[in-house]
Amino acid sequence: MQSSTIKSSRWGGVLATLLLAVSTLAVAGPNGIKVGVSSTPQIESLQIAVKEAKAQGLNVELVEFSDWNTPNAALANGDIDVNYFQHIPFLENAKKQGGYDFVPIAPGTIMKIGLYSHKWKSFAQIPVGGKVAIAGDPVNGGRGLLLLEKAGLIKLKPGLGYKATIQDIVANPRKLQIVQLEASQLARSLDDVDLAQGYPSFLKLAGDNPDNALLFDGLENKIYALQWVVRKQDVNNAQIRRFIAIYQQSKQVRASLDKVFGKLYAPAWL
């Protein structure tokens, strides 16, 4: 990873984006763009696309964030030109809560998520009153609840899909204690809970094998594909679209994703 193309942000909220604007102002220039990304192993494939873009005369700076709130605040403030970390349900919720005028302009990868345990080999072993961790944000938490229902551990009100919340659980025969954590922390909670929702990227960062889920959701629902998201005025920005095309068409990018994620991902643009 080259430090000249990635800047880390460990802050949250609007103050973080203001500081980021000061520290990165005028870096990209007229022949470049700034891309906000999440701190995950997907960075490797994006780095490859950055190098290929530079060889073609397009300068791209990756601005790395450690949370899922600051990238949208940074985009709204104009500190970055595009972000790439969220799927459509998450984006729609963020637009509703933050009043953002954002547009998804192209799909990226779609990742499986799973239910993982360091303590048990099957759902049948999970004890009455066991502790289960799911994502704390509304959309990804709902996705976790759907997995728990698929596993036969709970039952939800019908028809809610990923919009389900803990309050929508209508049956919990094992009296599971469901706790909500920031999605990036779920992988590190596995020693403290009986079962946790998990994401391949964060499991790899935590040193776990993401292939070892007790249950996966599928790759068929492309509503969960990551999106390249811009402000409305940048929908037709030629540089942004050129970089996305480089990313999507690069054989080296695909090889990197295949190496890192194997069968746990799919390119949603195909």
From TrEMBL:
Name by which UniProt lists this protein: Methionine ABC transporter substrate-binding protein
Q: Where would you find this protein in the cell?
A: Membrane
Q: Does the keyword Membrane apply?
A: yes
Chief subcellular location: membrane
* Pfam families in the record: Lipoprotein_9
Q: Which domain of life is it from?
A: Bacteria
Q: How does it sit in the membrane?
A: Lipid-anchor
Query: What is the originating organism of this protein?
Result: Aquitalea magnusonii
Q: Where is the signal peptide?
A: 1-28
- PANTHER family tied to this protein: D-METHIONINE-BINDING LIPOPROTEIN METQ (PTHR30429), D-METHIONINE-BINDING LIPOPROTEIN METQ-RELATED (PTHR30429:SF1)
Q: Name one GO cellular component term.
A: membrane
* Keywords attached to this entry: Lipoprotein, Membrane, Palmitate, Signal
Is Membrane included in the keywords of this UniProt record? yes
- SUPFAM superfamilies found in the cross-reference section: Periplasmic binding protein-like II
Family (UniProt): Belongs to the NlpA lipoprotein family.
